[in-house]
Amino acid sequence: MTFVVIDASAGVEIVADTRRGRALARLVPAGSEGWVPEHFYAEVLAVLRRRFLIERRITERAASAPSPVSTHGIFAARRSRRSSPPPGSTATT
Questions:
Q1: C-alpha–C-alpha distance, residues 15 and 10, integer Å
Q2: Who's near 86: CB < 8 A, 6+ residues apart?
Q3: Mind listing the pLDDT tens digit for each residue in 47-89?
Q4: What CA–CA distance (Å, rounded) separates 26 from 19?
Q5: Assessment of whether the complete model's pTM goes beyond 0.70
Q6: Complete DSSP assignment for 31-56
Q7: CA 52, CA 87: separation in Å to the nearest integer?
Q8: At CA 61, angle to CA 79 and CA 16, rounded to 5?
């Protein structure tokens, strides 16, 4: 039987199913037995939790953020320069 020691960083990649993780998983021989240090699961779960929280925060911010175009007073290109400015603006011609 072949014994394979798996590092926590490799474990994160494998569990997260990244391209690197899939490549690492292919390196583990079929029928081998995986060995991990005692703190392996705590480290892997901490990294996965952090990734999840960051992704969730990014998703929430993107969903609630106003359009960057509208917040800077940028208007559609089809609008003529001679047309009247939008309400509340102080454009001069």
A1: 9
A2: 73, 75
A3: 999 999 998 888 887 777 666 655 556 555 554 555 565 666 5
A4: 11
A5: no
A6: T-EEE--TTHHHHHHHHHHHHHHHHH
A7: 42
A8: 125
User: Cβ-count burial of 59 within 10 angstroms (0-12 exposed, 13-18 middle, 19+ buried)?
Assistant: exposed
Do 5 and 35 contact (CB within 8 A), yes or no? Answer: yes
pLDDT of residue 59: 85
CB-CB contact of 25 with 14 (8 Å)? yes
* Cα 92 to Cα 84: distance, rounded to the nearest angstrom: 10
Q: Tokens for 86?
A: 């939008």
Nearest 5°: phi and psi at 33? -110, 125
Determine the 3-state secondary structure of 4 from DSSP: strand
Task: In whole angstroms, give the CA distance from residue 49 to residue 59.
Answer: 15
